[in-house]
Amino acid sequence: MNLNNNGIGRWQGAGMMATTLLGTGVFILPQLTVEMSGSNAVFAWLLLTIGLLPMTYIFGKLSSIHPHSRGPAYFVEKAFGETAGRVIGLMFLLVVPIGTPAAVIMTFQFVQGMIAIDGFHLLIAELSALAGLYLLNRKGIHVSAKLQFLLTLLIVAIVMVLFASSTGQPNRINPTFESFDNNAVFQAAGLAFWSFLGVEAMSHLANEFKRPNKDVIPAMIIGSVLVGIIYIASTLLVLNHPNDAKLAIVGVFDTYFSSGSYIIGILGVAGGLATINVYTASLAKLVASFAEQGVLPRVLAQSNQQNVPQRALSTVLSIMALVLVITHFTGQDLEDLINWVNGVFAVIYLATMASAWVLLTSKHRLSIMLGFLACFGLVFGIGPHMFYAILLIAILLPIVKWQKRKLVLKQQLNKLA
After folding, report:
1. Angle subtended at Cα 110 by Cα 19 and Cα 201, rounded to the nearest 5 degrees
2. Dihedrals φ, ψ of 209, to 5°?
3. 206, 254, 373, 396: which is deepest, by most CB within 10 A?
């Protein structure tokens, strides 16, 4: 695929990376991890950030050497063959039915904090947001990259101002290793992993960078480090400012300033939609790539003048809308949705580390091994929720093998004819 010479620069990429990772969780996940494990949540965020840096580096290295819209699926295919690559790619596609509702539910919690909206009106608002993302993505991801960089700066500024304002807070909680609980830390890290979903999405967009070989790795590392710092700071804020607000960070904001529900709400909605936007763009490109290969209907490969696979984009957003409607009327526990998604991505990240072992030179082996360790730690923390990922593999593997045999047989028959 051709590189986009008018595309994303290093700092725009870092902004996209950071906003994607902050996204729906920046003002919610710290609260959930604190509720789950108390002061151990700080250790969970710290270990998660440190553990995922080698993995982020490996994703960036693979993306800079092999920039492709299929991202991890392409890496796995190059390392282990077409069948393995297609299974990983289809797993990424099939995580949408549970990932999108979780992201939208988290995003619209901020809306509900600003205005009284629920029931059918809430569903209409959520569907309208997806329609807006369609209009934005038709112009290409580089347009939203500029907006997302500014959004990242705003979110970072808000958290840092709150953290600085609270430095004199009496009776501050200072987590110590005496309170360290392995199980609590790993469970919180398993939930917090949602915050770092976006590393692989950036690999799908490597072709959108002006200079993938020079800018992808710095953009991903800078974004990841920044996000880790922001989440640790946000967790400390929630720990040290217990309050009765539905969103704890709003209560923290109101301790020092006013109109927290509106300021945090606007940033939360914008960050959440930015995350969904990046995933929408990366999924559309993955669908188009599979369509070019004949795995999906070829009509989905068609692109517009901005090189955006518009039919794939429409299809992805339509499926998101359908699942959102179903989820709205059936109801699902948010933490379960998050952990099911995390389980699928833990498998995708493990497969990517395995492909890096094959595709990269030996000097990268230490980073790859650290990446493996991080993945296995996440699998342990996610625990029984890994069932969804295992179920997907069990279903997809025989289907992909059957499809491949059918294609080979068809080619043989064409030759005989």
Report:
1. 25
2. -80, 150
3. 206
* Whole-prediction pTM: 0.77
Instruction: Give the separation between CA 156 and CA 249, rounded to whole angstroms.
Output: 14
- Two tokens, residue 250: 């709003």
d(CA 43, CA 37): 10
Report the DSSP beta bridge partners of residue 8: 209
Tokens describing residue 331:
């109801």
Largest CA distance in the chain: 83
CA–CA distance from 55 to each of 59, 79, 184, 230, 290 (Å)?
A: 6, 17, 23, 19, 25
Which residue's entry shows tokens 């080979």? 408
CB 59 within 8 A of CB 220: yes
CA distances from 367 to 61, 363, 379 (A): 11, 9, 19
pLDDT in tens, 159-202: 888 888 876 565 566 666 666 788 888 888 888 888 887 777 67
Q: Contact, 309 vs 160, CB < 8 A? A: no
SS3 (DSSP) at 265: helix
Is the dihedral angle over the CA atoms 407, 413, 414, 415 positive or is it negative?
Answer: positive
Q: Are 138 and 317 in contact (CB under 8 A)?
A: no
Give me the amino acid identity at 23: G
